[in-house]
Each structure stands twice: as structure tokens, then as C-alpha cells.
Specification:
alpha/beta; 24% strand
Length: 187
């Protein structure tokens, strides 16, 4: 369906990007992306995808463009199997202690995502040393970075933005990374 004047005004910044254009924006608007997984991640992915244009649902059977899995460890085996059988590209991420591991199934296999997280977490489970000053004495606090709700929220936002961008790239058939990647957000 051709873009309306309202669509052109709303998506003008995307339409001018080389590789997207009006036809790409029409493809985004025609696509339906299912988002499943950890509620904090699902809400963020939905926010980013809606801004780009695809219809966003939580019902996998309605997906025509892609399925995004926000936090692979949060889905049950039945949901995982339905995703694998759907034939729709599945973009997934899993938070680690300092960032996230991500991929696009089938190139980066969904069923190996939990293993990816364990491998990425090796060495990052160690406590983070934070020097604080209390009056004249200096003490060291120990905490695991991903245990903090604010840090987990930040990591979900970053991973969700990446997953939404990947979903748009898949829908538009743009070149995109292959394989599994580990992203260290907290550096």
C-alpha cells in the first residue's frame, strides 16, 4: 500500500536513509513482528519497533516479518519450539553480567542461546569493585553488575534497540551481521 501523506511526515527521517526509501518504509508498515520473552525487554522492543513502523504483536502465529525473543531464558520449551517451526527469522538476545549476547536464528541458533550466555558470563560474574567515600574513610563495595535493577533496565534498553534494528534489517533484507555476538555495554 502506498504511503499516505501522514506516513511520509511521520517516517520522513527513515525514508531518506539509503537502503530504506519509500518502498522500504512500505515493507516495514506491511510487516508484523511478534515479540516474546522477558516483559521488561518485550516492552522496550515493542516501543522501538512501533517507532519504525511494523505492526507489533505478542502472538507468534501472526508474525510475517520476524520474531524477537527478549531474554531467551525467559521463554519455555513450547514457545521455543513454536518459534523454531515458524520459519520466520528469530532475533534473540540474552542479558549477561555486563551486556548481552545476541543473534539471528537460524544463523545464530536459538537453541544454543543459553549456552552463549554462560560462555559470555564466564569471568563477568566476578564482583565489581566500587570505591566509595564515607566521611574520611574509603571502603570497597562488591556487587554483581547485572543484579542491580537499574543496570538490568539499561541492558534491556540497549539490547532491545539492537534487536529492533536487526528486525528491521531482516524485514528490509539489508545486509546484517551473522553469527552470535557478545556486546559489552558496561565496558
Amino acid at each position: 500500500m502506498p504511503l499516505s501523506n501522514e506516513d511520509i511526515e511521520r517516517y520522513a527521517r527513515q525514508i531518506v536513509i539509503p537502503g530504506i526509501g519509500a518502498s522500504g518504509q512500505e515493507a516495514l508498515l506491511a510487516a508484523t513482528v511478534a515479540v516474546v520473552g522477558d516483559e521488561a525487554g518485550v516492552e522496550q522492543v515493542e516501543l522501538y519497533l512501533r517507532a519504525a513502523g511494523p505492526r507489533v504483536v505478542r502472538d507468534m502465529e501472526s508474525a510475517t516479518g520476524a520474531v524477537v525473543v527478549a531474554g531467551v531464558s525467559s521463554i519455555d520449551d513450547r514457545t521455543r519450539e513454536r518459534i523454531l517451526r515458524s520459519g520466520v527469522p528469530a532475533l534473540w538476545y540474552e542479558l549477561t553480567g555486563r551486556g548481552f549476547v545476541c543473534g539471528v536464528h537460524p544463523d545464530a541458533r536459538l537453541e544454543e542461546a543459553a549456552t552463549s550466555r554462560r560462555a559470555a558470563d564466564d569471568g563477568t560474574r566476578a564482583t565489581q569493585h566500587v570505591a566509595t567515600r564515607d566521611d574520611a574513610t574509603t571502603s570497597t563495595q562488591h556487587r554483581a553488575p547485572a543484579d542491580d535493577d537499574a543496570v538490568r533496565s539499561l541492558l534491556h534498553r540497549v539490547a532491545a534497540c539492537d534487536a529492533a534494528a536487526a528486525a528491521c534489517a531482516v524485514i528490509l533484507r539489508l545486509p546484517f551481521r551473522s553469527g552470535r555476538q557478545t556486546v559489552d555495554v558496561l565496558g
